[in-house]
Amino acid sequence: MYSDLSNRLTIDAIGQQASDWATMVSRKWKLGKSKQAEFLRTLAGPMSVGKKPIQICEHIRRHGTTVQQTLAVLILDSLREGGGICNALDGWIDPVSLSALKATEEAGSDIFVRALERIADSLEVASQGRAKIVKLAIYPALILVATISIMIYPVGPVVESLKLMIRGKSDPALDQMTALIAFYTHWLWLTVTLGVLMVVSYRWYMANSISAFRHRLDKIPVFSGYRLSIASKFISTFALLKEFGMPAQRIFDILGSTGNTYQRYHSTLAQINLGEGAMSEVDAMDTGLLDDSQIATLHLYSSADDDHLIAAMNKAADVIGESISKRSTFAAYLVAFLIGGWAFFNVIMIVAVLVGFNPRDHMQLGV
Fold this sequence. Notes:
Layout: H1 2-30, H2 33-48, H3 53-63, H4 66-80, H5 95-105, H6 109-165, H7 172-186, H8 188-208, H9 212-218, H10 225-243, H11 248-256, H12 261-275, H13 281-284, H14 292-299, H15 306-354, H16 359-365
Helix pairs in contact: 2-3, 2-6, 3-4, 5-6, 5-10, 6-7, 6-10, 6-15, 7-15, 10-11, 10-15, 11-12
């Protein structure tokens, strides 16, 4: 009896986790970071000139996009029940950004509006890397799909007809094309699935692993992009909350309670460092997330007033952002080049068979 109950609870828990994951993926698809930034600006603009959140959300509910209307209804329900704006955005907005917004929502309208604008800017920048890859890779990808479709049909039946013309004798071009068509027909879906699983697994590992091997991996430039993206978000959020007068211990607590395992680990470690007597918040940040050169630069401002330190942190976040942008641009061109090269190879194969093949060559050579 107890065993059956335990199994049922386990199955229910797994089902709930799967449902939560599906909901999260659906929301990310509907409201990417660029759309999150757009929605936050839609709130911040009218609020900056004195409009009430209820008025703004009523306007969005009537005139916004479908997903914006959904969020507006959630915010209206929350406000009418005595809650806040941020409570309604759980699961829709990047969790770290949302935590920063929650921390500033009660500090007053002016501070909250500035936080909305700053976080919208950071979300916009964060969305540009993936947008670059999609923008550069979309046309080569369409050409690749078109060439594969053409190779399977109508080129596939043509190849079979040509093989009949030479009565089943061997021809390098036809044999290569036949093997390639067989791969596309029977194994391409499996290859694509494995590729997607590898990418998803890599991202999951980078977001959740805090092992010694993971830290060594961070030191390798090719694999340090994820660390840099978290570092940029970490230091820019810290600077934002510090600008509004929040103490370092509280900021580390907020950053340590949201986001993925990797970010929470570094935030919690910084909080521990500060509690164990670190001379400054910059010393506490020396957890391996930021480069040694970045920590050294921030140390130059650690004894200055908060305004100079905040400016230095924002500058460091901008420098990291520029590095991420360069990496994203390189990755986008690399992906476009690989996909385009694959499509070009298909075109060469099609031309080689349809233009270069001559059945008389086999008759003359007697093969």
